[in-house]
Amino acid sequence: MKNEMDISPFSIHEIEYVKKAARLLESAFPDSYKGRGLDEVMECLSEERVAYKATKDGEFLGFVSALEAYKPYGWELHPLVVADNARKMGVGKKLVEALEKTLSEKGVLTIFLGTDDERFATSLSEGNLFEDLYAKMARVRNYKEHPYEFYEKLGYQIVGVIPNANGWNKPDIIMAKNIGKSGE
Q: What is the pLDDT of residues 45-75, one digit of tens each?
């Protein structure tokens, strides 16, 4: 059916989409992936990872990937990227939901992620986080559309912060979500 977004597993063999994913990753996160987008996408699509892509009428809208970090129960969501013209349209939400469903079916209990604050977009970039960290985490504020609020809407919680992970007063905000079925 035309005009419907398609969320589907992302394969290393989808060469045109792989190239588009690499360009998207480099433009969305130039500080991290400039000149390395293709290598990162190839890693995201390796056999031991889980990845999904979003397309609409052949247009590549974004992708998400996850890797096993704590065998077998804890997986890291890395990365999630959505094209600028597809943001705030439910693309990221649908990608994350597909990923969570697959990982839950594999018996994964927890998904976690790091969402860097490299642009002083939250109150966590103000001052020394080694002083009164937990109170600062509890009072976190979003100044510049930092994605931690997107993840909160999907049920993720801030579970920690790595102060100065990306330079002075540029923390990595660690978030996690329980996706396990109770009693398993």
A: 999 999 999 999 999 999 999 999 999 999 9
- Which strand (E) or helix (H) includes residue 38? helix 37-44
pLDDT at 1 over 70: no
Q: Which residues on neighbouring strands pair with residue 176, listed in sequence order? A: 112, 157
Q: Give the span between the Cα atoms of 177 and 154, in whole angstroms.
A: 9
The contacts of residue 173 (CB under 8 Å, 6+ apart) are: 114, 115, 116, 117, 122, 124, 140, 146, 148, 158, 161
Q: Beta 172-178 vs 50-56: how paired, if at all?
A: unpaired
H helices of 56-177, where? Answer: 91-105, 133-138, 148-153
β pairing state of 50-56 and 5-9: antiparallel
How far is residue 31's CA from residue 33's CA, in Å, rounded to a whole number? 6
List of domains in the chain: 1-81 (3.40.630.30), 109-184 (3.40.630.30)
Distance CA 78, CA 151 (A): 13
Other C-beta atoms lying within 10 Å of the C-beta of residue 170? 17
